[in-house]
Amino acid sequence: MPDARIAVVGATGAVGSVTMRLLRERGHRNVRAFASERSAGTSLDGIVVEEATPEALESAGVDLALFSVGTSASRELVPHAVRGGAVAVDKSAAYRLQDGVPLVVPEVNGERAFEHDGVVANPNCCTIPLTCVLGPLHAAAGLARVRVSTYQSVSGAGARRMETLLAEPQAEHDLAMDWSWDGDETDEEAKIRAEARKILELPELPISATTVRVPVLVGHAEAVWIETEEPLSPGDAASVLGAAPSVRLVDVPTPRAAAQTDDVLVGRIRVDYAAERNGLALFLACDNLNKGAALNAIQIAELLLERVAV
Amino acid sequence: MPDARIAVVGATGAVGSVTMRLLRERGHRNVRAFASERSAGTSLDGIVVEEATPEALESAGVDLALFSVGTSASRELVPHAVRGGAVAVDKSAAYRLQDGVPLVVPEVNGERAFEHDGVVANPNCCTIPLTCVLGPLHAAAGLARVRVSTYQSVSGAGARRMETLLAEPQAEHDLAMDWSWDGDETDEEAKIRAEARKILELPELPISATTVRVPVLVGHAEAVWIETEEPLSPGDAASVLGAAPSVRLVDVPTPRAAAQTDDVLVGRIRVDYAAERNGLALFLACDNLNKGAALNAIQIAELLLERVAV
Q1: Residue B186: how many CA atoms within 13 Å on its side-chain side?
Q2: ipTM at complex level
Q3: pLDDT (tens digit per residue) in B182-216
Q4: Which of B214, B234, B281 is facing A208, going by the closest CB pair?
């Protein structure tokens, strides 16, 4: 597996650079970096960045291409990598809801990754930790309804917003809902619902989200209210989640504690006094660049490589 | 009314200094300022700060005493002001849930203010804007259940935390739940439930909160999910709230837009797709030092003064 030929497309961005670091840390040695013309020719950890043209990707001869570029760039470039024989793991929203494209959180629906037709989609950075928690709870007691409000760091809006927060903190000391709108929701809220339903294979799951940007550098947090079909005490929920892969129980999850770890931190598991029955409330935090994006895509890639037996 | 004799106790703190400014702006001229020994003798807007001793408060000869000191200081000092003939409006948690002490948001239950026995309590800074929204919705359609997650600025934790955020922003770029614990809840979460129930006179209202400190200087925001007894469309809810006192409808409420205004900003009013029936979601923001604390107490004082006809 360490000999698999992997291309990282968008290697110089906030998520791409974490992808490069994690690949190296996990022993992948045969990695090529692609980025826009602007970054081409620069060096990343001794790897010369190549320009991500359709032709370059089609002729790259790689087994896997991990895309962390914008949605429109993914729509343009991913088909070329696939035509060149690679399996593309795409972190943008371009393919997530497309029929026939698996949307995968390995801990929750890893088996679906193998049903691809050249493209596997990586979910939104809030959907990934949320489904890491909802999946095991659904298996234990059935999900009836879910509400979530988010506390999303500026790194989710790109490297430039991180620079602004560091350079002009007061300008950023506010909340924002800096997403596009999809009717009366942010497109982030619509994504969380649609993607969670697809990953959990619960197409009718009643779920609603309120997404908020907070002046934190790295790490997204989520306040979650869950109603289950069967009774599940906070203690039993903690046991279920404590045994769940990639979940780590803590007293109070914070973005700072989650940053640069691979885990989804979960805590504050308690009864939701507002629920008619079987209500739980909890709080989670996760590194949105790591498990929320780069690591999840690498885990998908590694799943595929195990079967492909490169 | 402008001739009423008013004492502000804790006049040099984050809320006390806003109280002093608002009293001046609203035409109150007969104001005395009290604070701890440390601040006594200093001058606030030309008013020499007096030391808040039990004796000084008992002999102050004021009509009203507005307390913005900690809970234990309120427990100690408020009875002396009352013994001296003042009506105390207390912003701490000391008396809020005590039988016989009205807990008042003038727009919601102003009439209750007159039922006092010397003390009227001012609610928590999250409870005030929340009930400004819940009160009119309850009158319109009946409240069935309420969930709220908060985004609370550091000014709610005191003036020193504001200084830290300004001086060392990176140290504060994290979320926190920096309250005391009341079982498996923060005491802030328990307060929101207990106080909202008392103000709305719905002692069994199913309501739960998750309270979170965010690195914002001034202004608290709340993501709210509401289920009503009768159907209420988002459009009708907006009409109800648009006509409600102290509420201002905006597209996206933010702490910065709310700061230094008297209004509770409300927006994002939409259907809660997770609710079984009659579900609404909305977002609100409010200046926690102003309407969330100082202004609400002054409004209580002015209500009382109109009846007392000083």
Answers
A1: 21
A2: 0.95
A3: 999 999 999 999 999 999 999 999 999 999 999 99
A4: B281
